[in-house]
Amino acid sequence: MQNFNYRNPTHIVFGQDRIEELATLIPANARVLITYGGGSVVRFGTLDKVKAALGDRTVFEFGGIEANPKFDTLMQAVSVARDNQVDFLLAVGGGSVMDGTKFISLAIQYDQDEANLLKYGFTPVPVESDKVIPLGVIATLPATGSEMNAFAVVSYQGGKFPVNHPAIYPTFAFLDPKLTFSLPSIQVANGVVDAFVHVLEQYATYPVDARVQDRMAEGIMRTLIEIGPITVAEPTNYEARANLMWSATSALNGMIGVGVPFDWTTHMIGHELTALFNIDHAQTLAAVLPSVWRVLTPQKHAKLLQYAERVWDITEGSDDERVEQAIAKTEAFFQQVGLKTCLRDHGIEKSQLDDVIKALEAHGMTALSETGKVDLAISRQILEMAW
Ligand code: NZQ
Ligand code: ZN
């Protein structure tokens, strides 16, 4: 196992009908900016419940944060927050609203060009923690894990840029499965696949004898395989949705990722596909991940074999056959919940793969995977296989 530090300060409030407890978690004299997306929280009544729970605090609102939140939109919210001396942010929505709000929290007191905040990738941005406005979250979409991590992804000038800072962990996150019952089934399927791929990108690398992390990862994946199809088909099945919600949070709150290598190749290629072709985040992952594995089988062989046996109960055939069966079962699982696994099914022409390669190059994505050996030529191979 590799050395690690682990600290996660987010207070989770899990369960149904607990929004009134907001009052105990936000200072009584706070000046709160509620942020939300394109209107689902207005239509389904969540915003009203949140405002009621905030009582007589001074509250401002900023709606209209789009999926894959854009820098320019977020800067409008920054202006609202600055004009009104906001000192607490409350994100009500999915990963895009949570991520956007994290960016806003960093930008409000930042005294340089705010686009600089997008330059640092997975390295924490150089901002003093006491200059970051605290934020809380009411999650309405189980997928990204943003509710309990210190990352955000912001769209800017044709790219998607990760942002990281220890002070953007939400101070609290309300996870009420009932608030997600209104999701369209495709968004639920997106959530199942996003969470599954988050687990795999911290698991399918090479063995470091991290037994707790491996078995937790396998437990989350087996849970998603069991409840994924149920929660897509039965939107108001509380127990299935509760298990999806905690799986998605557990997949990317850092716990299974301590002391192990990562491979974010699928996400980095996927981000370019979203930015170029406007394909939902998780749908890019469903198309790219199987090809990442087929191309990188030699470097991932031992963990893929472990995955085949412990997650899919595959015990027959040669080692290579077991690995291929596990990849095929993973693809079938993505399709079973309703996602496409080929890029051409998203209407992408083969010639457009050149644009993806150019974007990877422009964004410095030229040494991906746990080995750093995935250069543009290997990314092209992955994309051609995923097409
Ligand atoms: O905008 P509204 O009207 O709210 O509608 C949203 C949006 O259209 C809708 N929705 C959300 N909750 C709903 C609902 N509709 C009905 N009922 C509800 N309860 O769902 C649509 C998609 O929302 P979005 O927030 O974009 O989806 P998701 O949670 O999948 O977030 C995707 C974003 O997260 C980033 C992605 O790159 C993408 O920008 N990620 C963030 C990560 C992180 N912070 O750690 C990691 C992930 O890998 C990912 O990259
Ligand atoms: Zn993701």
Automatic annotation (TrEMBL):
Q: Which residues form the Alcohol dehydrogenase iron-type/glycerol dehydrogenase GldA domain?
A: 9-177
Keyword Oxidoreductase on this protein?
yes
User: Which UniProt key words apply to this protein?
Assistant: Oxidoreductase
Cofactors, names only: Fe cation
Give the molecular function GO annotations.
alcohol dehydrogenase (NADP+) activity; butanol dehydrogenase (NAD+) activity; metal ion binding; methylglyoxal reductase (NADPH) (acetol producing) activity
CDD domains found in the cross-reference section: BDH
Q: Which SUPFAM superfamilies match?
A: Dehydroquinate synthase-like
UniProt key word Transferase: no
Which Pfam family, any one, appears in the UniProt record? Answer: ADH_Fe_C
Q: Where is the Fe-containing alcohol dehydrogenase-like C-terminal domain?
A: 189-358
Q: Which GO terms describe its cellular component?
A: cytosol
What family is it from?
A: Belongs to the iron-containing alcohol dehydrogenase family.
Q: What is this protein called?
A: Iron-containing alcohol dehydrogenase
The taxonomic lineage of its organism, from the top, reads: Bacteria, Pseudomonadati, Pseudomonadota, Gammaproteobacteria, Alteromonadales
> What InterPro entries does this protein map onto?
ADH_Fe/GldA (IPR001670), ADH_Fe_C (IPR056798), ADH_Fe_CS (IPR018211), BDH-like (IPR044731)
